[in-house]
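Let's practice the habit of predicting before peeking. Look at the sequence and jot down your guess about where helices and strands might fall. Then scroll down.
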Amino acid sequence: MGNSGSNRRRQQPAEAQPQNAGGGNAAAAELQQSAPKAPSCDVVISYHADDIALMRFIQGELESNKLSVFADVEANRQDGKTGSAIVQAKVFILILSPSSATSKSCNREVQLAYISDKPIFPVTVRDHEDPELLKAMDFGLKLTLQPMEWIFFTNVDDKATPMKELIATVRVQLDNPAGTESSGTPPVQRAPSATAVLASAASSDETTQSRRARITMHRTAKVTTDKSLIRTETEIGDATESATHVPGTARTFWDRHFEGSDTVSWIRFKDAFLEEYGSKLESLVSSDQSTIDWILKLMHREVFENNEATTKVGFLEFRGKRPERNLFYKRISQLALESYSMHGVFSMDSTVRLAAVENLGKFSSAAVVEALLDLLDDPDANIRAVAAISLGQTGAGKARSVQRLIEKLGDSDRLVREACCLSLGHMKSEEAVPHIVNRWRNDFISHVREAAHVALKNIGGEEAGRAIHMTEVLTKEIRALTS
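Done guessing? Here is the structure:
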């Protein structure tokens, strides 16, 4: 996840992002705020109050098997403890129901578990084809849970069997955090971490480490039961891709639609994409045209940089060269999921935002940092401010983060400028001193000037000290002349 060029601006209209974040005007203070601490635990259970009976049963069974469990009461979800617990936990369980699927708190908790690379296990009393459940799930939740291993408590007379399966599954994750199975233990397919995926991509045959090449499949584990929520991506689209070609080669989406052409118009590319995958997208987003439009705009911006002409080179840089069926569709799905999850976690109305910001150092993979860099250009000023604060906390990708934060010191929103000043001060960036001095001396908003002054003091050093001294001397002399 990330930005192929530090100067490239995002043009996504505010209404294009599904479930826009709420407002707020105190984001910069989060550098000094802390999320309430939760005890470290093996398992976090996310649930809706309607499902409290099942939650208590599962919690009791896990605890009787010597597993520590955190399950906050519904009324306390706003205090941030659940977010802290998720970051510290080893396994995340979602009790999935129509109520939890439509709960903003539960969705934010799933998104935080996703970006912090926690093994996620959906538990449900519903059938995998239950229409009410499928209707309640938005496309982000569907994409997140689709490849995960589901545990079904559909038989009201037999909770013991799925509970035994759940305990065994959790045990595998706790005993084999790197994904290796001990002998005699049923294998559980676990998704690789974002860091591991990116490291693998760096050594692959993809020749560029641009933003497009870095979009990799963050979660690839498959459901081990045939009761998957929806068909896996490898079942989507042209089933003959790579089957009739020379071994080791792949007949890609581009080859199928534009063979012999190196460039086609964006309109033609979009139409071909919808022709092949439109019905799958409609099923995924429950025919919500605004979400389909958002995915298409995201693809246009991130793959082809909003150019009217799409190129085979740009397509292959994003897709990669592996001979894998429907790899382009997979990566578009992943791009949408990552963007959606990051927006959810860091939105101003998020119940887990403080915990995410405070604990970014624990999961500040390259993918997370790249996504935060992208959010610096979000149409919502609150999102830009939170992204600036979060980058100041990551301690990763410092050079690029500093450069982008310096650029955003000129943002049109005063809260974003304030957040950038404080983050650069928190990172003790000497490179940023001249730019922060400019904000301190020239910004017309007093809060920004105060943030710049604080940042200069935090950075310290000869240049910052000299700038502070000179400005203070000149200020005193000017005041003396006007008194």
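How did you do? Residues 461-482 form the longest helix (22 residues).
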